[in-house]
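Folds abound. Consider this:
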Amino acid sequence: MSAISEPGPTLPVAAAEKKRLSLDWLGVMPFMIFALLFLVLPTVFLVAGAFQDPQGKLTFANIANLFQPSILNAYWISIKISLASALLGAGIGFAIAAAVVLGGLPAWIRAPLMTFSGVASNFAGVPLAYAFLFTLGRTGLVTYLLLNIFGFNLYAHGFNLLSFWGLTITYLYFQIPLMVLIITPALDGLKREWREAALILGATKNQYWRMVAFPILWPALLGTILLLFANSFGAIATAYALTGSSLSIVPIVLYAQIRGDVLQDPQLGYALAFGMIVITGISNGVYIWMRARSERWLK
């Protein structure tokens, strides 16, 4: 009779697995500490300050002050700029990504485009503002070339970099690359069989996009637009360096309330920040939900 093999000791193996798993957590600890110090704790501090008076007592007066006409107007201007830059960035970025992924462009263009998009989507703040001032300012390079070569005075025809559309165009520098980075994987997920099946059944190219491609891409498109909206809604360094106080958007009004010499009211600044957190939080939440829905379609 053959001997029955007995199972070997499993406790040391289990202990080793547990030890390895516990050591794996050390890899993400720097990220968790970073997020706690620079994201979670400041957010909790701002939310708590929005519901406190200067003496630290609970109050809703700061939230009620958000409904002042000047503050509501600042929110409205910020929403319009964010929406305009999000829609334009999404449209242009989608066209670029579709041309590279689905169009007839050479394959070697994709790698430089994605590399540039990764860099440009993170290029913001004071350097971006100065770059546009040197390019499209009153004495900028493009303004100079248009005037001296083509005889076209850009500012005489109503353009102003320190205005609504000037700030919107500036935001497009990082909105378009961000759209390219996010929508490219969704376009890669469109299967060739879907297009071939639509063409075999007699659908035209426009019908394929209208009835097959866009319904599948719609969650990803809408979610990305919301992400672009949130991305520009909270930008302050670029807007402040470019327009100063000439354009009253929420981040600039918030800065004036916390750090200003005339309008200083830190508690109202906390309430303004709380309102921005609510708006961007809703936008990012809907984006995450839409992205998860799109990924289920593209699997």
Observations:
- The longest helix spans residues 11-50.
- The two ends are 53 Å apart (CA to CA).
